């Protein structure tokens, strides 16, 4: 049985598969990479939650050549893919198996940056808020949390619109969505996205400042905030 967020039965098809089913996947990652205040040459410690096959991890380690990333995921098969991909970065990349918010983040005042992509929306509302509290605690003063994720619209017609947009995207990749899902054994039975507004409020409640959304394309958004100095 698949774990939340694995998406495909076989993790080796994740990289080509996710680009075919998540519109503007690279652009979402770009927004996550462009948003941190740190300069490229700074030596920063990053915690990545739900690293999957290490796509964003690779981009982070490349964008910040003096950084180190602790990449966490609860899926053995995703971590196996990530391990192969991240080998070239040596000890700058550390992979750990664990689940958030139960196991991570556990540190206090340790990370300059906490990032996540397409993973937090698997948690229910309460666990998202627990996670935001823990992330706040784990950051250094002035550190940032940035999340690129699926969001829910409170307006049903906008949910329909987002669904149609995804169907069109999959079609633009040469597939009918049903055929794609069947052929790639894709599904996500654990989705529980929250609205962007709720999450921005919860971030504020956790103590974050400068809480904001940076990028949005229909029901995908990049948002976050800063721990007070
Ligand atoms: C859709 S993938 C995204 C992977 C990667 N961040 C990306 O941008 O392609 C979601 C990942 O989050 C992991 N995940 C989901 N919920 C998790 C949790 N509560 N704890 C740890 N990992 C989780 C899944 O195993 C999966 O690898």
UniProtKB/TrEMBL annotation:
Q: Which CDD domains match?
A: AdoMet_MTases
Q: Which Pfam families match?
A: Methyltransf_25
Q: Which SUPFAM superfamilies match?
A: S-adenosyl-L-methionine-dependent methyltransferases
Q: Please give the name of this protein.
A: Class I SAM-dependent methyltransferase
Question: Which keywords belong to this entry?
Answer: Methyltransferase, Transferase
Per UniProt, residues of the Methyltransferase domain are 46-143
Q: Which GO terms describe its molecular function?
A: methyltransferase activity
Organism annotation: Halorussus aquaticus
Which GO biological-process labels does this protein carry? methylation
